[in-house]
Every structure is written in C-alpha cells, then in structure tokens.
Amino acid sequence: MKIVAKRDLKASPQELWAIVAQPGNMPAWNPKCVRASETPTINAGETFTALYEMKGQQHEAVGDILRSETNREITFRYNLKDSAGTGTIIETLSFAPKTDSITRVSHSVDFSKSNLPFWVKLLIGLIGRFGRNVGAEPLQGVQDLLGTVNKS
C-alpha cells in the first residue's frame, strides 16, 4: 500500500533539504502539485494547504508536517478533500549521503491510512512494487530542479 522510489542524486542532503522540505516549494518539484502554501518553519506540526491535479481533476488537500529531521527526513500528511473520499496519505522523503556529492533519496507515498477500499490499496501496492512509473514523478522533478540550480 506504499509506492516507493529511490534515486541517487548529485547533491548534498543540505541542497536536497532546501528544495523539498518547505511545502511551498512542492510545485517546483512535484508534477502533480499545482500550488502549496508555505509554512513559517519546517517543524513537525506546521500546517499548509495544497492543490493537486491528477487525471485532469483538481484535489484540495490540508497537510501537516508529521516529522522533520533537518537534512535527513521530512514526512508530510495530506487529508485530501475529494469526491472519492481518498482521505489521508503520508509522503516521506529521506536523504542518505553515499559520497560527499551523491545522496540516495527515498520517496514513499503511503496509502494505508487512506479511506480507499482495500482492493485499491492492494492494487497500489502491487503496482508500486512490480509496475513501472508512467509520467513524471517527484524524484525526477527534484533531479530536474537540481540541474537548473547547479547550472547557475
């Protein structure tokens, strides 16, 4: 019931943190996020709003930061306000340095706390484990953004 992606990126954990930890930056790296509000700090308990577009439909979400370990891990919880009654989704990004200039980024989206029917959660888990990505995904957005940042 989780979709997990891992990628080695040419950046330090500090550079990656600067891009992904602030919810207001999400539209720059997450292709499904149309807009997101900023939080005053990047601490657990901060709340924000976000608008996502998936399959041509927009979905409002109220989010909060569940966990924040500077330069190591950020976990967001979203409560989607949609007609499907999706409910709560947990997204985590974690950073593990491999060398001075390469960091392993793990990105997971957990649907186990959502209101989706069990069979949909199971299908998401199977696709996440055995399927392949279709379309743009967040880690590609982070990598693309790093390329833009590193060129300046």
UniProtKB/TrEMBL annotation:
Parts forming coiled coils: none
Highest taxon of the lineage: Bacteria
Source organism of the structure: Pelagicoccus enzymogenes
InterPro entries, per the entry: Polyketide_cyclase/dehydratase (IPR019587), START-like_dom_sf (IPR023393)
Transmembrane segments: none
Pfam families in the record: Polyketide_cyc2
UniProt name for this protein: SRPBCC family protein
Annotated Gene3D superfamilies: 3.30.530.20
